[in-house]
Every structure is written in C-alpha cells, then in structure tokens.
Amino acid sequence: MQADDLARALAPKLGGNFLGAEPFAGTAGRVRFGRDGALDLFRTVRDDLGFAHLSMVGAIDWVDHREVFYVVWSDGAKQYALLSTDLPAADPHVESASAVWPSANWHEREAWELVGIEFDHHPDLRHLLTPDGYAFHPLLRSFRLHEPENLEVKSRHV
Amino acid sequence: MSEMWINMGPQHPMTHGLWNLRVRIDGEMILDVDPEMGYLHRGIEKISEDRHYNEVITLMDRCCYVAGLSWEHLYILAAEEALHIEPPERAKYLRMMCDEFQRIGSHIMWYSAFVQDIGLMTPFLYGMRDRDLILDLFQSYTGARMTYEYMRVGGVRNDLPLGFTDQARKVLDWLIDRFREYDQLCLGSTIFHRRCDQLGVLKANDCITHGVTGPMLRSAGVKRDLRKDRPYAAYDQVDFDVAVADGADVTARYLVRMEEMRQSVRIVRQTLDWLDRHPGPVIAENLPRWLGAPYAPIGDEGYLLKRRYPKGVGFSSVEEPHGEAQAYVVNEGGEHPYRVKFRSPVFANISAARQYLVGYHVADIPPIMGSVDICVGEVDR
Predict the structure, then answer these.
(1) Is A78 on the interface with B (CB under 8 A)?
(2) Contact between A106 and B347 using a beta-carbon 8 Å cutoff
(3) Could you tell me if the ipTM is greater than 0.90?
(4) A145: in domain
(5) Interface membership of B38 toward A (CB under 8 Å)
(6) Which of A6, B14, B158, B305 is the most exposed place for a label (fewest CB within 10 A)?
(7) Hey, is the C-beta of A69 within 8 angstroms of any chain B C-beta?
(8) B306, pLDDT greater than 50
(9) Inter-CA distances, A51 with A80, B140, B299, Å
C-alpha cells in the first residue's frame, strides 16, 4: 500500500477533513486530517483498510501548534501507516480513538498528561505516569526543566 | 461476601519492579483490576530533547534494564532515518547479534523470575547462572554488563575482540542444552501445569484490539514478528522460524518464549559465521563531528559550531524481547532531537490487564502477570 492508495480510499469518505497523504519512509504513508473528521477516519482506516491494530498515540508540541499522531498496523498489508492532525495550541482537543481502538486508552492518557491534549469522550482520562493533581505538562516546550516547582502531590487513594 | 479493593504493590513479590496492581475482589474472585504505573517515571523523552543524538543512547540502557541493547537498536534506527545516515553492513550484523543475545538474556531473566513466582526455586538459580555467560560476552566487547552504550548513530562503537566468535559459539552450545533442562524442570512437572494451564487466556482478537504484541500475541496463534514482517538490520538475510502456540494461556506463553530462545541461537550462529567471513568498518565514514565519530577530538569545532543538518523524521520499529517497540524521532536541524517518542510493548500489554485477569482467582495473579514479562523501566520511561 502506498500513500496514493491511502488518499484514494480516504478522500471520498472524509471530504474536507482529508488534508492529504504523503510518503513516509518505512510505512504506507502519513495521512493528514482535520480533527472534525477524526472518528470517520479511524473507522474507515480500521474497517475498510484493515489497520486493526493501533500501536501508538503520540503528541508533539510545535512552536505554534500541537500535533497528535497515530501509528496503526495492518496484518494483511504488513505495513504501518501514520495518521496525524494539527491542533491549535489554545484549544488542543480531538476526539478519542478509544471507541474504535481500545488500545488507545493508555496512550491518550499519557498524551493528555504530558503534552496537554484533551481527548473528547475518553472513557477514563486520569493521570498515568505523573501524580494525581500534577498541574504541569512536562513535554511542552514551555515547561522549565530547571526551575523549582511549587508542587503539591496528592496521594491517589485516601 | 463484601467487595473490596486491595493493592498488590508497589512493593510486592509479584510486581518485578515498582508498580501497583489494584484489584477489586469478592472473596477469592477478581472482579476488576486497575494497574497504576508511574513510580519509575524519569522523563526520558523530556531529557532526550536536551541531549546530543549519541547521548540519548545512555538513556536507552536505562529504559529497559534487561534488554538495553534492543532499545539502543530501536533508537538508533529512528535517529539514523531522521539524520539520513546509513550504517555499514558489518554494523548491522553486529547489532543483530546484540539483539538476539539480548533476547536470550531477557527471556532467561523472565524464566527465572516467572518460575520463582509459581514457587520453583531451583530453576531460578539455573537461569541466573546461564544468563551470566551472556553478560560475560557482553562485557568482553561493550565493557559493561547492564548499561552497554555500545551502538552509535552510524554504526557501533567498536569491533569484536579476538576470539570472540569461538567463545560465543561455546556459550550457544552450552545454552541449547540448558533449554532442554529448563523444559524438563517445568513441563515435566504436574504442579507447573496445574498452576499455568488455561490461565490468563487472551484470545487473538482481544490481543489485537488491546494492542498486545510480542510473545503474548504469538501465544494466541497470530504469526506476527517484525523480524519477518518488516525486516530491519539484516534479518532478511538469516534463516529462522517464528515461534507460535495456540493455547493463549500462561503455558502457551512459556512455550513461545522457549522456542524463541532456540530460534535466537540459530540466528546468532548464522550471524557469527557471517562476521567471521566479512571484516570491515563498523561505523559510517564522514559522520558530522558532533555525532561523535570515534576519531573526533572533543572540544574541536564539532561541539562548538552550530551544525545544520537537513530536517527529517525517523520512525522505527523493533521486535524487542517483550514485544513490538517503536520510536519516533523528530530532527528539526539542530544538535538535539526536537521530540523523541517511544512505544513500549509492556505498556500496551499491561493496559490490557483487565482482559486477562478478571474472572480468575487472586492466587492466579502471580503466574499470569509473570507470563506478561514486565519491565517497568520501559513502561514508565
């Protein structure tokens, strides 16, 4: 499967939310999509294209916006594909993929606490790696690594 | 009976590391589980943003402390793609040998811990004895037994010492006999079967929807191994079989890992033969100096000048002993990676804990979680 195949299959389903598919070394390609079409895209990619396995959800804090990317794998094509969407830094939210791929659950929890992405309709958006009540998003570029924090850590189960 | 939540961990013999398994029980029955991670979170992805490309390798050894070389390999593959560097052929074979020795070492470590979980003390000691031979081999060419820092962007740090391949073959001959002994100790024991058969069943469909990979997925009958499906290094040049079983239970995971060790021995033997016949450079020529080619004088222009490099993004995926690990490295042209993201296989395998624990008894938790092969260092990063 090539980037063109992805574009041919996805463009009619997504309409204006399909922003292009480009080649990406070692994978079938990278699909860029608008966040409003997220659920449609996930369903099409899983059911029509056969990418049944969601491997990873990651987020990147760029200078002027944030990016969420999904890595999916197809057992039929034996290939990865990347899906990525850009979110404005002021309002970084996107539909959760947990309804389509349950494996997204923990990856999205991690992206939420470390990069500050809000996942709508996530079943269980709690802290995973950082303590409950930790009010910082360490993987943002604005996070100061060497400044002391005024940090209160709550115990999880009192 | 009344229901209650109990904490198994963060300090519990079952956990093999710092994490907490919260279990809702009614009498002896497990009704719900909620794994809690984060006790070992060191922010490796954040620290990586502040380091040169080769300095991240140090962190990879700390990422998974029983499979450091596999994680180095993972990061190196992504970094080379992001920086547009191609390693020499011999380096690829050396990395493959590291990977497979590491897989045997990691599986023996798993075996030792797992059998101790189900109450067999003797195999634990046998396993630790045999793993030491592999650590001795690592020490002879990397200088370390646990934190190797052996691979480099563009190749590996140094070549093998004289006589290494003969010594390695002796170790393999010794190990292949020991695997038979391991099987006799476990599969020949009724107690082992009564504690492990039909336990922690996770069928192929559930594995795929919940992102489970590695020996757990292959024990459910799915023949998926990145070394075959998406060959990296030189895995397309060697001959081996993918280990699968169809029980989807604890015993099946045991069988898959045992067979994987035998296949790893096959791969290492072929790799050693190749290495004997093909001497050559082990690190790419003309690396930018700040990448730390072995001949670069530190303090020379390399570290002082701001080098620009074509931007790039690297994505790599490696069949690590625990499953499928992935790395995503963003190079924005500077000296440090802009963003590094790792996917830990154990992270996904634990996140599915509810699927393979609910409905069993509390006493079944140690064998089931033991069969997952947990390394908390790579889950928390």
Answers:
(1) yes
(2) yes
(3) no
(4) no
(5) yes
(6) B305
(7) yes
(8) no
(9) 8, 43, 49
Range of the domain at B338: 53-281+308-376
Domain count, chain B: 1
Query: Residue A53 is nearest to which of B208, B313, B381, comparing CB atoms?
Result: B208
Cβ A26–B210 below 8 Å, yes or no? Answer: no
Local confidence band at B12 (pLDDT 50, 70, 90 cut-offs): confident
pLDDT at site B305:
39
Q: How many CB pairs under 8 A join A and B?
A: 89
Say if A110 falls within a structural domain.
yes
Instruction: State the total domains in chain A.
Output: 1
Range of the domain at A31: 3-120
Mean pLDDT of A26-54: 88
Nearest CA in chain A to B324: A55
Q: What is the CATH number of the domain that holds A105?
A: 3.30.460.80
Minimal CA separation from A140 to chain B, in Å: 9
Question: Does residue A126 lie in a domain region?
Answer: no
Where do runs of H (alpha helix) occur along chain B? 44-48, 56-63, 68-83, 89-117, 122-142, 164-187, 190-196, 204-209, 215-218, 226-229, 250-277, 301-304, 345-351, 353-357, 365-372, 376-380
Q: Is B289 a domain residue?
A: no
Indicate whether A105 belongs to any domain.
yes
Q: Which of A66, A128, A134 to mutate to test the interface with B (most CBs of B within 10 A)?
A: A128
Q: In chain A, which among 39-68 make CB contacts under 8 A with chain B?
A: 52-56, 58, 60-61
CATH, residue B148: 1.10.645.10
Distance CA(B35)–CA(B21), nearest Å, equals 4
pTM of the model: 0.87
Please state the rounded mean pLDDT for residues A13-26. Answer: 83
Helix, strand, coil % in chain B, rounded to nearest 5: 50, 15, 35
Q: Is residue B175 part of a domain?
A: yes
Q: Is B163 within a domain?
A: yes
